[in-house]
Amino acid sequence: MQIQTPSFIFCKLRQLFSDNVFTFSFLLITTLYLSADWFMDRYFMPKNISFVVGIILWGGICIGNWKRKIRLSVDFLFLSFTVFMGYVFVCSLFTSQYIHSVYIVSGWILFVLMRNRKNPTETFNSILAVVGVLSALYGLLQYVGCIEIQSYFPVIGSFDNPAGFAASIVLCYPFLLCHSSNGKRRTFKVMACLLLIIVVILSGSRTGVLTLCVVTLLFYALRYRKLIHKRRIFLISGGALFLISLFIGLIYLKPASASGRVLIWKVSAGLCKEHIIQGNGLGSFKADYMPEQAKYLSSSHADESDRILAGNTNYPFNEYLLLLIEQGLIGIALFLLSLIAVFRSNVAFDTPAILTLVSIAIFSCFSYPFKYTFVWFMIIYCFASLNQREVALRTIRFNKPFLLIILFILCFFLIKNIIFERTWKRISLVAEKNNGLLDNELSVFTKLYDEWNGNPYFLYNYASELKNVELYKQSVNIFLHCESYINTYDLQMQLADNYYQMECWEEAERRYKLAQCMCPSRFLPLQGLLRVYVKSDNCILAERIALEIINKRIKIPSYTVTIIQEEARNYLRKKNI
């Protein structure tokens, strides 16, 4: 009997781990991506999950290729994707939020690693199918009340709202659907597909329901195209009629929501005019949209229904429109170049990768899927799964030292960002518990501001805390800084309240009016204007605003609205007396 030496056993174990490390890494990063919003809600770590993924992948590749070099095949798909990501990366360099550049580089690295490794694609697809089923079960348990959630919505999964949850289920659905058409236990797999469909319906995501129907019809039409060839005209017409009827039905299911999105698209179209070629810049939508909405609603083009529907908006509910606004026609052209590379790929259209890309394309028309990290991961994975028909133009090799350098850089940014977010979270909880900032917490906030990581919501939180402890001048300065990144109704109201406390009546009036133009159905800006005019002894305008408050149409009855109207009536009674 041959005795195995320790070195031989070690080599075998290392080889086994090397062969499976990428599979384990894929399983781990899939779980992390799906729970990204769960982490963000509890640990204030927005997008840090990208760094975690980068480190896991780079570490796995370093171990799996300890004595080998990585080959990078340059073809049309690689070039088109790299040029697009490179253009977005260059645009990010011209913003103060440097952290976006790191996210973009992490995404490109993920694409390179997943594309140029001999990945067990079938294993990866099975993992995604199982992840979809587990996510659906988690959402179902939320719906029936077995898992309690702090949300108005009945089903949100591990995300902050049903949109992200429905998007994750829809993107996993094609992998399960393809498994259900072949192999053993087909009945069980079909039942799992039905589970995903039912959970998406329970989530209330109309875009998710529409996407599932389109993907299902497309899959069976392509998979059984030979059988339906003789009746293709009848079946295609029937399928198109069904989808059109479903689309119209989903619109009338929530007509106010549909009309609100049309309003957002009309206002967003005005943002494209000034810099149509190169766009307004990465992240510019949140800073530019609400002032543009205020301008539109104040014009003669808007009617009363538009003013009632208008609300606080951070996303255009159309990723293509967002790309045009922020990246211009150049970004659209480079995006279309990537689509051409997809169609030139040597992959059948009924495969999970193509169907998932179709799902993302449909979801992007009516929602904001790219807000969620899991969607970025899925689109990169699907792009990396496509094989090109032509021979690679060139092959580039990377060695171990290069991998380790990138790994250390990612670790540096990861640790730096996590420390910042965790410290912010801790200080915010202490301030909330003490109903305000103490001297110690204020000094920590000031230090964090000096080391700001580019997250504009930190600026908003810091300025709000300064306002709560009556440091109005400092609060105004921070809010003005935040205004260049996220200019919303809430921010304008905070600024107006600060100016009111500082007795800067003209500036307070201007901010209250801007907030009122942004969301004309709100009562709080009118209450602020009434108080400004009363304090500044402008009786004529105060009476006019009081009458407007009393006669204003109420969108949603609430206790706050009742109090504001009672305040206006009391003012008019005192004036008459």
TrEMBL record:
Its main location: membrane. It is found in: Membrane. GO terms for molecular function: ligase activity. Keywords: Ligase, Membrane, Transmembrane, Transmembrane helix. InterPro entries: O-antigen_ligase-rel_domated, TPR-like_helical_dom_sf, WaaL-like. Pfam families: Wzy_C. It comes from the Bacteria. Residues 192-336 form the O-antigen ligase-related domain. GO terms for cellular component: membrane. It is a multi-pass membrane protein. The chain crosses the membrane at residues 16-36, 48-66, 78-111, 123-141, 153-176, 188-221, 233-253, 320-342, 354-381, 401-419. PANTHER family: LIPOPOLYSACCHARIDE BIOSYNTHESIS PROTEIN PA4999-RELATED, TEICHURONIC ACID BIOSYNTHESIS PROTEIN TUAE. This is O-antigen ligase family protein. It comes from Bacteroides xylanisolvens.
